[in-house]
Specification:
This protein is an all-alpha fold. 75% of the residues lie in helices and 0% in strands. The protein contains 12 helices and no strands. The protein has helices at residues 3-14, 19-38, 41-66, 71-74, 85-110, 115-131, 137-157, 159-214, 219-222, 226-231, 260-266, 268-277. Helix 2 (19-38) runs antiparallel to helix 7 (137-157) and helix 11 crosses helix 12. The protein is elongated and about 170 Å long. The termini are far apart.
Length: 278
């Protein structure tokens, strides 16, 4: 059987399309769970095994002692029975495909190929986690099998009511999700506008601080020539000429003279000034 064949097989079995086959499989599974719980099947298996082997050994040994021929060996077949290779390969192939079917389905649930199935598996795992604390394994298996078989039956019997309620729940969830999304977008836009306003305010303040730091004139600007002072507008520093400043000394200082006035009078500039004055 291929993967699609297993899909259709389990779907037909669990959807109660054939009520007789589904009922038989459900009752058989339930009886097997109760038998595994209350019947010592393993113990009975060993009991049947040791009785059979003991009887065979007793007949063989007794026959050789009494009839000089073993009784068990007289029933021995000429050729021992073997499982045909075709049947064994077919069984192994079916087992391999069944195992791969469950492996593929688990991966589909794990990677959320259908989100509804993933959510259902999550809910089932969560409930099983809490139930396993105080429910034995056979009880948990009985609950799982009952839900697996009876839940589709309940859904098929009340399909219209369940679909209508599910649609209403879906609409409510979608409406709430849309409202939350709109509210989040509104708050996000307000936060963005607030951040932009603060950023603009801080930028203007930083620019004003930078402008106030650059406003005092630097020493380089104070040493500008007369042309730059003449070209400046109202409120700028007045322009000076070279005649407004005293002449710089052009000779060596006279020995024994300490004051600047005496140095000036002894210099040619000072003598020329006195001659002009007289």
């Amino acid at each position: 059987m291929e993967n699609a064949d297993y899909h259709s097989f389990f779907y037909n079995l669990l959807s109660w399309e054939n009520p007789r086959a589904t009922s038989i499989s459900f009752l058989s599974t339930v009886l097997f769970i109760f038998a595994a719980r209350y019947l010592p099947a393993l113990r009975w298996t060993f009991k049947v095994l040791y009785i059979t082997l003991g009887t065979t050994a007793a007949l063989e040994i007794g026959g050789k002692m009494v009839f000089s021929q073993g009784l068990a060996s007289s029933f021995r077949p000429k050729k021992y029975y073997t499982i045909p290779r075709e049947a064994l390969e077919a069984s192994l192939e079916d087992m391999e495909q069944l195992i791969n079917f469950f492996v593929i389905e688990f991966q589909r649930i794990l990677f959320a190929e259908k989100p509804a199935n993933t959510v259902a598996a999550f809910v089932a795992s969560l409930i099983s986690y809490w139930l396993i604390k105080f429910t034995p394994l056979w009880g948990l298996s009985l609950i799982a099998v009952s839900l697996m078989y009876l839940a589709p039956l309940v859904y098929m019997s009340n399909k219209e009511i369940i679909d209508r309620n599910l649609e209403n729940i879906t609409n409510v969830i979608n409406a709430q999700a849309t409202q939350v999304k709109d509210l989040a977008g509104h708050h996000t836009s307000r936060a963005t506008e607030t951040v932009k306003a603060y950023a603009g305010d801080y930028t203007s303040k930083a620019q004003s601080y930078i402008g106030s730091a650059r406003s005092p004139s630097s020493p380089k600007g104070a040493q500008a020539g007369p042309s730059s002072g003449a070209a400046s507008g109202p409120g700028s520093a007045p322009a000076y000429q070279s005649s407004d400043f005293p002449h710089a000394p052009k000779q060596e200082p006279v020995a024994g003279v300490t004051s600047h006035q005496e140095q000036y009078e002894k210099s040619p500039f000072g003598g020329q000034a006195e001659a002009v004055a007289s």
